[in-house]
Amino acid sequence: MIPKTETDFTGIEIKTEPSLTYALDIERGSISGKIDGIESVRQAIYLILSTKRYGHLIYSRNYGTEHSNVIGEDKEYAFSEIKRCIREALLQDDRITEADDFDFYDDKKSVRVTFTVRTIFGDIESEVNI
After folding, report:
1. DSSP state of 26
2. Rounded Cα–Cα distance for residues 68 and 39 (Å)
């Protein structure tokens, strides 16, 4: 038997948290102040795409990407899977609404993927090397 409730959800306000965060200086390995808005999303994109999904217990199972799983596969299959993995990983962030306009550049040793990330703050051109 499934319990039934009579909960009234009217009047509940959905609050969006600010995206204020620490600015990471990747080259120096330090923090260089705080960032907000589109810059915080740009940093989140970098961190999400740099993290292997299921690879670190500190992150939830929804954080990171699995695009490294397609290495060695047929090029057409790999490109479609990379696109899916990037889109799936980025859409976990509620500030990101879409990832599209994917272009693939294959130089036989690696693949560079460029794409546009649509956010609530504006569009971001991004790229990742695989």
Report:
1. T
2. 26
Contacts of 37 (CB under 8 A, 6+ apart): 19, 121
The whole-model pTM stands at 0.79
The b-or-e profile of 58-76 (16+ CB within 10 A means b, else e) is eeeeebbbbbeebeeeeee
DSSP 78-103: HHHHHHHHHHHHHTTSTTEEEEEEEE
Per residue in 20-73, pLDDT (tens digit) is: 888 888 888 888 889 899 999 999 999 898 888 877 778 788 888 887 677 777
Q: Do residues 4 and 55 make contact, with C-beta atoms less than 8 angstroms apart?
A: no
Say if strands 30-35 and 21-25 run parallel, antiparallel, or are unpaired: antiparallel
Give phi and psi for 43, each to the nearest 5. Answer: -65, -40
